[in-house]
Amino acid sequence: MSIKSIKKGAILIAKPALTNDIFQRSVILITEHVESGSIGFILNRSSHLPISIFVSEMEANSIVFEGGPVDTENIYYIHKRPDLIRNSEWISGDVYWSGVYEDVRDAINNEMIKDDEIKFFIGYCGWSPKQIVNELDENSWEITDLDFDLFENWNSDLWKKLMKELGGENLIWLNTPADPSMN
């Protein structure tokens, strides 16, 4: 597997080999991919808590997702509104990440950004170049392109949807419990 086959905007889908792992049945958006490593966010693991619980100066009920195990002290975001959020970094299509926090706070509090235009995460996923390549070589992940709405309130149904789209040997895992010993 070449590091070049991974690109910003790619979607990583956890293969069933990742049982009892923090990434079990996760779907991750790669937001940064450079020689020194990759960054992404788990899209389908809701904290079930609104952003106002994490950031008291934001008056919104947007749900925060558990973005990954790295830097879980901070909130990150992907969005569709680079017109409102300065210094946004383009990912793919109409999806951006990061940007000036004060712009996000003000746009949220003034109801200029809707829930289906921004997604918040606590923490992120990070890989060194060799780490992610090794995991791909070990068949821990499937790589696919972004072809669904990131801003929906996805949970486990996103993993199942994408496994079904991948087809083939992946179909056997659709109705298997997350913990196969519970079968």
Question: What report would you give on this structure?
Answer:
The chain is an alpha+beta fold and about 180 residues long. It is built from 4 helices and 10 strands, in the order E-E-E-E-H-E-E-E-E-H-E-H-E-H. It has helices at about 50-55, 100-110, 130-135, 155-165; strands at about 10-15, 25-35, 35-40, 45-50, 65, 70-80, 90, 95, 120-125, 140-145. Strands 1, 2, 3, 4, 5, 6, 7, 8, 9 and 10 form a 10-stranded mixed sheet that branches. Strand 7 (about 90) and strand 8 (about 95) form a beta hairpin. The radius of gyration is 16 Å and the shape is globular.
Structural topology:
Elements: E1 11-14, E2 27-34, E3 37-42, E4 46-50, H1 51-54, E5 63-66, E6 70-79, E7 89-92, E8 95-97, H2 101-109, E9 118-127, H3 129-137, E10 141-144, H4 156-166
Parallel strand pairs: 5-9
Antiparallel strand pairs: 1-2, 1-10, 2-3, 3-9, 4-5, 6-8, 6-9, 7-8
Keywords:
183 residues, alpha+beta, 4 helices
Q: Which spans have pLDDT < 50 for at least 5 consecutive residues?
A: none
**Overall average residue pLDDT:** 87
The whole-angstrom Rg is: 16 Å
The helical percent reads 10-25%
Number of strands: 10
Which structural class should the secondary elements be placed in? alpha+beta
Output the number of helix runs. 4
Largest sheet: 10 strands, mixed
Distance between the termini: 33 Å
Order of helices and strands: EEEEHEEEEHEHEH
Q: Give the overall silhouette.
A: globular
Beta-strand share of residues? 25-35%
Give the gist of this structure.
With 183 residues, the chain is of the alpha+beta class. It has 4 helices and 10 strands.
